[in-house]
Amino acid sequence: MKVVWNGNTIAEAPKEDLIYIEGNWYFPPSSVNADYLVKSDTPYTCPWKGVCQYFTITDGTTTAQDDAWSYPEPLPSAIEQVKKDFSNYVAFWRSAVVEE
User: Based on the structure, what is the number of domains in the chain?
Assistant: First the structure.
């Protein structure tokens, strides 16, 4: 599977390496091209997953504010519920399209 944003593939990994949580595919950190992501200051804490880190997607010209996110240190109960450690896995939405 891959994530395409503004004509660029910014993440790509086999489906079996991804984690599906609440309607979103989370990509392993090693499969994401970090050159396109800039940490955002937007605060959010999920009641069951923990503190979220949003990212702005950018190619230097175009930006998509907070269109990617991860949980650097998910709550232990969330890891138990998902049945896999999803620390630093990255999910995408709005302008970033996940394709099979």
Answer: 1
Sequence-distant (≥ 6) Cβ neighbours of residue 21 within 8 angstroms? 49, 82, 86, 91
pTM of structure: 0.96
| Local confidence pLDDT in tens for the 100 residues of the chain | 999 999 999 999 999 999 999 999 999 999 999 999 999 999 999 999 999 999 999 999 999 999 999 999 999 999 999 999 999 999 999 999 999 9
CATH of the domain at 31: 2.170.150.40
**Domain enclosing residue 12, as ranges:** 2-99
Pair of tokens at residue 17: 């390496």
